[in-house]
């Protein structure tokens, strides 16, 4: 009993260390991208907190799986200390952890982040009247609160099991709704809301992560163009534009006014010249910086990392394809959300995770690696594409130059993508996410020449056919599969993810090297920080 308590304490200590590492990572990550000139304390704290909560919720997944697995021996029997009361307490602890984290996520998505965003939007338009800014921000935030309330009500009062009694009265049906809500302790309401956010996270993952999985490794392999070469080309462009301007302005030396067409040309050329001179300042700064020299020195290491990332991306895509193909061939169909009972077509990650789970915390490290890989590839996709609303580009994400509103958008997108990773991991290893390494005992009656022998018991891995009192389902699974239509949406989303990855891989292969100041200076840039040199290149 003491040894068990010691190992459980060790597990929770590792979880605590993971929390500290997550907070440090979020602080460094947000500080890396936020604008040095337009930095705002509240937006910075909001972004760090929201991203940290999402990462902590993903860190709870391996802890959940470890705890349900640790309650059983390898032969399928429960450990001496793992009686019904202890196991229920452990399950409740994890469940309350999910309740807390997911409630905070709802608070961030539907209240805190929208309020801070609209507050700073209003601050730019009406600088001075704080009370007016708060009122306007609350007015817009009220719409998000309404959406959250509607989602909670739908999840709470739409019954999962509709009664078949034809003679039941309307009052009895309403009473049943409240009984279901009370018996689930609000689990279905929270699950519906989180699943709705996870679907949005799936769309964000399809848009940004799938493309970033191809763009990031190929950019590392191909590298960037030389700063000296780009500066030489830029100087030639400046001379060419200046000569063109002189030719147009020479037409009015005799006092004649320029035509409207020439005036438009002069305006466009002057804007082009300002952009080229900004590029000149950036390129000069980069060419002289120690960071550029350091990046050139570790160029072989970047190529190695690029090759590693593309192998990981292909491995992940193949695993996802095999998992989805298994669902297409062996699942119960659309009406069940393509839920599959057991695994018929295995994949590399499905084989690896249960093996690593037996040696804590190897599976914890792998899941953390998968989540961080999703973060970095998503960030690569967002940096390459920017934040768009349909065909309108809202913001760019740049190191040291991201505005407070864009930073909030960035962390909102990453938060939703991290939420979706839990289902992605389930898609790749359903057995692992549901039961971990649990086994249960099955009675085996062997006979010899028609005569029964002694009854023996053999251990078998837990699956959907296992008795409920022999295998404990993780709390994560309860949140993921309360509603079949969300599972169906995830299934089709996985196919879309694979398709976008392959398209992005082709596009990334066809594109040439990136500019060394890619995204730093642009004519149509809506960010107001173009004129300041990046602190990373000084």
From TrEMBL:
<dbReference type="GO" id="GO:0031419">
    <property type="term" value="F:cobalamin binding"/>
</dbReference>
<keyword id="KW-0813">Transport</keyword>
<dbReference type="GO" id="GO:0061462">
    <property type="term" value="P:protein localization to lysosome"/>
</dbReference>
<protein>
    <recommendedName>
        <fullName>Lysosomal cobalamin transport escort protein LMBD1</fullName>
    </recommendedName>
</protein>
<keyword id="KW-0846">Cobalamin</keyword>
<feature type="transmembrane region" description="Helical">
    <location>
        <begin position="483"/>
        <end position="507"/>
    </location>
</feature>
<keyword id="KW-0472">Membrane</keyword>
<keyword id="KW-0812">Transmembrane</keyword>
<feature type="transmembrane region" description="Helical">
    <location>
        <begin position="140"/>
        <end position="162"/>
    </location>
</feature>
<feature type="coiled-coil region">
    <location>
        <begin position="259"/>
        <end position="286"/>
    </location>
</feature>
<dbReference type="Pfam" id="PF04791">
    <property type="entry name" value="LMBR1"/>
</dbReference>
<feature type="transmembrane region" description="Helical">
    <location>
        <begin position="406"/>
        <end position="426"/>
    </location>
</feature>
<dbReference type="GO" id="GO:0005765">
    <property type="term" value="C:lysosomal membrane"/>
</dbReference>
<dbReference type="InterPro" id="IPR006876">
    <property type="entry name" value="LMBR1-like_membr_prot"/>
</dbReference>
<keyword id="KW-0170">Cobalt</keyword>
<feature type="transmembrane region" description="Helical">
    <location>
        <begin position="12"/>
        <end position="30"/>
    </location>
</feature>
<feature type="transmembrane region" description="Helical">
    <location>
        <begin position="96"/>
        <end position="120"/>
    </location>
</feature>
<feature type="transmembrane region" description="Helical">
    <location>
        <begin position="42"/>
        <end position="63"/>
    </location>
</feature>
<feature type="transmembrane region" description="Helical">
    <location>
        <begin position="364"/>
        <end position="394"/>
    </location>
</feature>
<keyword id="KW-0458">Lysosome</keyword>
<keyword id="KW-1133">Transmembrane helix</keyword>
<comment type="similarity">
    <text>Belongs to the LIMR family. LMBRD1 subfamily.</text>
</comment>
<dbReference type="InterPro" id="IPR050854">
    <property type="entry name" value="LMBD1_LysCbl_Transport"/>
</dbReference>
<feature type="transmembrane region" description="Helical">
    <location>
        <begin position="187"/>
        <end position="211"/>
    </location>
</feature>
<keyword id="KW-0175">Coiled coil</keyword>
<feature type="transmembrane region" description="Helical">
    <location>
        <begin position="303"/>
        <end position="322"/>
    </location>
</feature>
């Amino acid at each position: 009993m003491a040894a068990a308590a010691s190992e459980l304490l060790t597990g929770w200590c590792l979880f605590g260390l993971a929390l500290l590492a997550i907070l440090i990572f979020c602080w460094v990550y947000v500080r890396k991208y936020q604008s040095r000139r337009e930095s705002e304390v509240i937006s910075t704290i909001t972004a760090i907190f929201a991203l940290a909560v999402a990462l902590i919720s993903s860190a709870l997944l391996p802890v959940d799986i470890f705890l349900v697995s640790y309650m059983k021996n390898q032969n399928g029997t429960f450990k001496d200390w793992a009686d019904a009361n202890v196991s229920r307490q452990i399950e409740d602890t994890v469940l309350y952890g999910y309740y807390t984290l997911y409630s905070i996520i709802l608070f961030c998505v539907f209240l805190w982040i929208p309020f801070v965003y609209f507050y700073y939007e209003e601050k730019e338009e009406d600088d001075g009247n704080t009370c007016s800014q708060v009122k306007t921000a609350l007015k817009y935030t009220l719409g998000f609160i309404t959406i959250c309330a509607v989602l909670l009500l739908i999840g709470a009062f739409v019954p999962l099991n509709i009664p078949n009694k034809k003679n039941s009265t309307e009052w009895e049906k309403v009473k049943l709704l409240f009984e279901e809500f009370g018996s689930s302790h609000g689990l279905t309401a929270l699950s519906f809301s989180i699943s709705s956010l996870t679907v949005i996270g799936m769309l964000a993952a399809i848009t940004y992560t799938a493309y970033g999985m191809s763009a990031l490794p190929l950019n590392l392999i191909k590298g960037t163009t030389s700063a000296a070469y780009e500066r030489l080309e830029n100087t030639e462009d400046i001379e060419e534009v200046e000569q063109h301007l002189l030719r147009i302005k020479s037409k009015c030396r005799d006092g004649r006014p320029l035509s409207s067409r020439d005036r438009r040309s002069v305006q466009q050329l002057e804007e082009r010249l300002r952009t080229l001179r900004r590029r000149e300042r950036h390129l000069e700064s980069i060419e002289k910086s120690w960071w550029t020299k350091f990046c050139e020195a570790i160029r072989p290491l970047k190529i190695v990392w690029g090759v590693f990332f593309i192998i990981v991306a292909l491995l992940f895509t193949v695993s996802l394809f095999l998992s989805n193909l298994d669902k297409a061939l062996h699942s119960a169909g659309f009406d069940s959300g393509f839920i599959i009972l057991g695994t018929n077509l295995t994949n590399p990650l499905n084989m690896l995770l249960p093996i690593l789970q037996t040696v804590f915390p190897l599976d914890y490290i792998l899941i953390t690696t998968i989540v961080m890989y999703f973060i970095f590839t998503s960030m690569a996709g967002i940096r390459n594409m920017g934040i768009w609303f349909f065909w309108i580009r809202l913001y760019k994400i740049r190191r040291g130059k991201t505005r407070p509103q864009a930073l909030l958008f960035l962390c909102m997108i990453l938060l939703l993508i991290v939420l979706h990773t839990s289902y992605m991991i389930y898609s790749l290893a359903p057995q692992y996410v549901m039961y971990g390494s649990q086994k249960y005992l099955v009675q085996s009656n062997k006979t010899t020449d028609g005569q029964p022998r002694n009854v023996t018991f053999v251990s078998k891995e837990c699956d959907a056919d296992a008795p409920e009192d022999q295998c404990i389902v993780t709390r994560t699974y309860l949140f993921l599969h309360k509603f079949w239509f969300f599972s169906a949406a995830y299934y089709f989303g996985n196919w879309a993810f694979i398709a976008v990855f392959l398209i992005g891989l082709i596009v990334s292969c066809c594109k040439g090297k990136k500019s060394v100041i890619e995204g730093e200076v642009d004519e149509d840039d809506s960010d107001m920080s173009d004129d300041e040199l990046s602190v990373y290149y000084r």
